């Protein structure tokens, strides 16, 4: 372990997943507390302002209270790092070895923050600009995965202002009802609806379009949803935690993190988690092979969670990739790693050390 590494923890953000990020960051800070790092907290408000927070770490999980005290604005200086904008107007550079973005959704894991860090010359943990942008866009990620021979759901894209004929054609191209309607560049199931017939479609589209001008209409895959927690670089050796399974009943679907109760593992949308997944050895081998193939095809690095479906016929189908998966104490990625014998603190430490060493 390289003690005294100066690590910036980025949290908050402008997306609908701001509160999730606060909970993830609180857990990450607790896990890294004993690693000997010099931690610098950089919170991003809902409006997008970057602030260097030097107050009580426990306040991070208390909504936006942290942003009202012990803060100093942070500016990104191309080639000059991240700098505190002091009260007298001067800039003081934050001496950092590596940044760990604990951000979810648009503006946080879609390549924007990653590009800012790269422009500032700050090494960071996780997927790069290209991979982050590609994985956030379900349409683009599915197209690239399909080009690599990976089975993906039938999908059609609609934009605001699409005609009824466009909508009807999209549903037909996906094989008819039921379909899933989702913001193409969203996460954590926000704005996602399972549409059983035409009477439910308009409301589902309105909800999805309220979050993204680009909406995906997807074939509803019948099967078991499983998750793969993966670490490593696409060009090198990869590791995977224990594969988990989403257990869905009564026609529901999985809505992770929607529940505001901190101890909940999922919301009440007729779903729960099971780790390890209860699938056959042959299916497990194919899931692991496909998970690694998706990770490499989409140029992932650092860590990510690849979500897949296993159909009754044994086919494995891509759902989506989360390049900064939830890191709360009840999130899937930490639980899958824990089941494989790896504590989250050790996983995070490995990621930080790898990112810092690559920058040397």
Describe the structure.
- The chain has 360 residues and is of the alpha+beta class.
- The chain is built from nine helices and 17 strands.
- It has helices at residues 18-32, 112-120, 129-136, 138-147, 164-173, 201-209, 281-297, 332-339, 344-359, and strands at residues 6-12, 38-44, 50-53, 71-77, 81-85, 91-93, 98-101, 155-159, 179-183, 193-195, 214-219, 224-233, 238-240, 244-248, 271-274, 301-310, 316-322.
- The strands form three sheets. Strands 6-5-4-3-2-1-7 form a seven-stranded mixed sheet. Strands 12, 13, 14, 15, 16 and 17 form a six-stranded antiparallel sheet that branches.
- The chain is globular, with a radius of gyration of 20 Å.
- It starts with 5 loop residues before the first strand and ends with a helix.
- Mean pLDDT is 92; it is low at 257-268.
Going across the biggest sheet, name each strand in turn: 6-5-4-3-2-1-7
Number of strands: 17
Shape: globular
Low-confidence stretches are 257-268
Task: Please describe the biggest sheet, giving its number of strands, its sense, and whether it closes into a barrel.
Answer: 7 strands, mixed
Strand content: 25-35%
The count of helical stretches stands at 9
What is the rounded Rg?
20 Å
Average per-residue pLDDT, rounded, comes to 92
- Rounded to the nearest angstrom, the distance between the terminal CA atoms is 15 Å
Helix content: 25-40%
The string of secondary-structure elements, in order, is: EHEEEEEEHHHEHEEHEEEEEHEEHH
